[in-house]
Request: fold
Amino acid sequence: MKRTIGGLDLTATGACGAFNLKRAARAVARVYDAQLLRVGLRSTQFTTLVAAAKAGPAPVGHLAEMTGMDQTTMTRGLQLMARQGLVSIAKRGSGRTKIVTLTREGERLLKRATPLWRAAHAGFTSTFGPTKWRTMQRELERAAALQKS
Reply:
């Protein structure tokens, strides 16, 4: 593989953290999506439904923070889920704050999706074993914390 292009040194760019983590994230998402698509969800939607269920009625910004998404991306995803009847989005007061609540339909879908998620998760984590997966999870949490610094 080329290491220089027109005199530009590209040595070590393949070790880029952003590239490698995104590539791994896409591969892992495909593992979870393969299961979750059986009920019409993608892993990102499942994650959002879980966050909405855990947080209870919560502002969009809180859900975005919980999932590590930016607020605009979270809003777009929630609007789609609201059209599907999975969440409701209501304005709070006169401000721009919008409160998200999981609907009964969202709860039903989450109940159907969770066993599929568990199957995907078991298959994924078995690739590494529980000890190595816990270590990886801690390291991923450290990487996610970079966003806050």
